[in-house]
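Batch manifest line 603
LIGAND: iron/sulfur cluster
JOB: complex structure
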Amino acid sequence: MNNLISRAKELLESKTVNVVIGYEAGPTGLARPAFITDSAKADKLIYDERCVQNLAVYLTKAEVKNFGKMAIVARLPVMRSIMMLISEQQVIGDNLIILGISEDNSLLDIASISVMQGYIDKCDLGNPSKDREILAELNKMTPEEKFSWWQNQFSKCIKCYACRQACPMCYCIRCTVEVNQPQWIPVQANAHGNTEWHILRAMHLAGRCISCGECGRACPVGIPCHLLTMQLADQVWNYFHVHAGTSDKMNSVLSTYEPNDKESFII
Amino acid sequence: METTRKLIRKHSLELLYKKLSASNKVYAPVTATDKQVEYKYNPPFSDVTFDHIRSTLSVKNLVFPKVENLFIFSNSKTESSITDVNLNLLPNVVLWGSHPCDNAAFDILRSIFCWDINDEFFSKRLEKVTVIGLACHTSDDYCFCTSTGNAPNSVKGSDILLSKLSGGDYIAEFITAKGSSILASSPELFENETEEKAVIAVVNTKFSHEQVTEKLQTAFEHPFWVENSLRCIGCGACTYVCPTCACFDIQDETKGKEGRRYRSWDSCGFGLFTLHTSGHNPRHVQSQRWRQRIMHKFSYMPDRNESLGCVGCGRCSSACPVDMNISEQLEALQNI
Ligand code: SF4
Ligand code: SF4
Ligand code: SF4
Ligand code: SF4
Ligand code: SF4
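JOB STATUS: finished
ARTIFACT:
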């Protein structure tokens, strides 16, 4: 952590970056995002097991982009999100300094995007083990059981869109649910509207979800909506052997055709 | 006004609950998971919690449901017709065990929905609700009712207010005629009050809302808003869990020749909320939307509705995925 603070100070004092995006502790002890612009305030930065939020979501937000050059504290999911965002041309890698954090919470020396790629390649890129276990249980259900399990979850949804807003890959300026001429997805938060929303979100993230779990963590009513996108991440791996966020030049699985693609899932 | 106070033993409380659920919909809080407390209709008494600090969602959906049909329409070759929703068919509801902050919110909602014209969807629903409130015996760091003119044992909005006694029985305070009619119909369940004291949570005041309102008069352009909302991701969580937020969207949904117009919750946290047809958006960045949230509740509402737009329940802070803590921000605003 001291390394992280001194590196942040160095970057701010030398004006290499205008902001360091990291974590601080809030008044109730929760870790939350911090935007440090003054090296004197860099001592607030923390890094420990509480720091789980995927900070990459801020890289595409207007008021954060206004800072220009920035550094970002990045564990594996953040690094993978950055890869996706660069490959989808939402972020320019050159404007970004990666303060990489390893699995054992130490500061990594990530000098460039290709170094980051090397680091990502060596990591386990599957879904987190606790989610893998829940998915395995869900996958034992019959399609009817699974449908009713999810219907029960969706019935709680209030359409606050925290899941969408928390996801680095949901950066659209106008989400499909906001397109209202015509209205594609019902605005109402009832069984019908909620199911359509969740199917839409899952499909838009197929092959793009980097399994950070942020959407599920953000949900105020406790819907584990990250399991939907993680399930699709598994399927993308099974069918296409691709993990999202592993290169800055990825083609989107669902919008790319390869002659040797497996087509066994087409009914 | 002097109110009647009676003792009700825990087992009599169960009898009262059962009696009320036999003829009404009773809406009561149950612990759903370790983090979620949900209100349900007529849950078994053994599931009802008396110890929760705050339910995940407020109880405003009783009077302002997340989706409310306004009317049904149909079109044929020769004519169109509109059918009103029959509000007289709404059932009576007993709201059971809701805390003083949530109960105080009904008046605030009324000040919005019935500000100039009477919103009959709201007021018909409210008429049907009887509130059996429960004073708070526990609280946490998110609570700040006392900074908004409320209190953990405030009777505002309750027809009956229950307070837990140290021995586990309850005091029932009958506030309104609706509340007293419950006493009149089940006198055998109540006894005379004893010396035993109620356990009431201690919630320290964090700021003076008068001073915050005063400061906000000149704070519109203050750098505070950008600095303190960079982490806000612009979702609707704070609004939708809030007992006093009342914004809605109106939509038509049709299927073939029939359809309905409904309203559903909306939030000033969303970019779409203020987007004009021209493409111009007067609140084009998140700091302006966060400012609106605070300004509406602590400046515009005191000015126009003669009431704060916040009861200090702390729900928005506990629901926020990025720990935007509203009382922390109000405390800071008091001193800018
Ligand atoms: S887990 Fe959720 S938040 Fe994370 S990338 Fe996937 S869809 Fe987005
Ligand atoms: S965060 Fe939860 S409640 Fe909000 S829209 Fe997503 S799933 Fe629904
Ligand atoms: S304050 Fe929190 S809950 Fe409200 S819009 Fe911002 S991120 Fe969402
Ligand atoms: S603004 Fe927050 S604290 Fe105030 S009433 Fe709404 S949810 Fe409760
Ligand atoms: S704070 Fe925002 S969402 Fe809530 S009532 Fe005011 S304008 Fe509406």
